[in-house]
């Protein structure tokens, strides 16, 4: 057992474990810790297992782990007994892997505000995110003009305010409710890009309320001017002449003018938890 004490520490531990030929590394922590471990193990024969130890645990819950670590550890032990893991796809942006999503624009600006109060995150996670969202909406993010361009192989969105590039679904959880942006986002398919072309309060709230109902959000004639969704992507690019913020698996990584995304099939082997009924 090793304990991290700074950013990037878990990646180095995972890389060392892979060099030593260990069968698996269990990441016990939040989604940021998981991301670092996955980055260190991607492309190696050492499998990844996940234990929920953060405030939201999006990826752990997505693959069927209970949010209670005392239950989840039994699910993981069962998964380890079943074999050496199944290969899954990961996203990669500017050379760094992500497990479930990368948020660009408004979403990342919210995460930036949350991380300014990181000591409160574990104890007041969801209220803190709501407060940070309102603060960012009111004064921390320009809602009057587009911030970036999103480009695929044969399509382009020029007026991006807020984009989420998904490797899995849901995008996140509000309490026990999944925020379901696209059912096409899964570990055995390509990436999904969901772009808001406006930050109109009515448009965003209506879209997110629809996501809470399940089934994913859909582009129709009524919302095509505010929303763009592309699925099964192998690559895409987000760029701008001016800097824009981005976050990766819930960790704020700063500002940039260019993000190059790729989907990497079978990037890592995942120890899948057994169903709770089998524990």
Can I get a quick summary?
By secondary structure, the chain is an alpha+beta fold.
Description:
This protein is α+β, with helices and mostly antiparallel strands. The chain folds into 2 domains: 9-93 and 267-278, 3-Layer(aba) Sandwich (Rossmann fold), CATH 3.40.50.10330; 97-262, Sandwich (Tumour Suppressor Smad4), CATH 2.60.200.40. The protein is 29% helix and 34% strand. The protein is built from 8 helices and 14 strands. It has helices at residues 9-19, 31-41, 58-62, 69-81, 106-115, 118-121, 125-140, 201-212, and strands at 24-29, 47-52, 86-93, 96-98, 101-105, 148-151, 156-160, 162-166, 172-174, 177-179, 191-196, 227-233, 235-248, 251-270. The strands form 3 sheets. Strands 3, 4, 5, 6, 7, 8, 11, 12, 13 and 14 form a 10-stranded antiparallel β-sheet that branches.
Summarize the topology.
Elements: H1 9-19, E1 24-29, H2 31-41, E2 47-52, H3 58-62, H4 69-81, E3 86-93, E4 96-98, E5 101-105, H5 106-115, H6 118-121, H7 125-140, E6 148-151, E7 156-160, E8 162-166, E9 172-174, E10 177-179, E11 191-196, H8 201-212, E12 227-233, E13 235-248, E14 251-270
Parallel strand pairs: 1-2
Antiparallel strand pairs: 3-4, 3-14, 5-8, 5-13, 6-7, 6-13, 8-11, 9-10, 11-12, 13-14
């Amino acid at each position: 057992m090793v304990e991290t004490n700074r950013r990037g520490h878990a990646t180095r531990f995972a890389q060392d474990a892979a060099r030593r030929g260990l069968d698996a590394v269990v990441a016990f922590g939040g989604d940021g810790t998981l991301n670092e471990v996955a980055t260190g193990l991607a492309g190696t024969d050492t499998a990844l297992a996940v234990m929920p130890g953060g405030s939201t645990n999006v990826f752990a819950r997505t693959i069927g782990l209970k949010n209670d670590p005392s239950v989840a550890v039994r699910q993981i032990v069962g998964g380890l007994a079943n074999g050496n893991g199944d290969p899954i796809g990961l996203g990669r942006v500017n050379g760094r892997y992500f497990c479930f999503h990368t948020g660009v624009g408004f979403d990342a600006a919210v995460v930036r505000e949350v991380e300014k109060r990181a000591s409160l995150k574990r104890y007041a996670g969801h209220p803190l995110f709501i407060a940070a969202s309102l603060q960012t909406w009111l004064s921390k993010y320009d809602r009057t003009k587009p911030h970036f361009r999103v480009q695929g192989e044969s399509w382009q969105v020029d007026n991006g305010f807020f984009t989420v590039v998904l490797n899995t679904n849901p995008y996140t959880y509000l309490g026990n409710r999944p925020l379901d942006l696209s059912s096409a986002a899964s570990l055995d398919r390509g990436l999904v890009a969901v772009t808001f072309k406006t930050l109109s309060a009515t448009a965003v709230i209506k879209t997110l309320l629809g996501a809470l109902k399940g089934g994913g959000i859909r582009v129709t004639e009524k919302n095509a001017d505010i929303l763009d969704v592309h699925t099964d992507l192998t690559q895409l690019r987000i760029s701008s002449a001016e800097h824009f913020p981005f976050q990766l698996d819930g960790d704020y990584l700063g500002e940039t003018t260019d993000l190059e995304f790729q989907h990497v099939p079978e990037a890592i082997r995942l120890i899948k938890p057994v169903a709770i009924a089998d524990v």
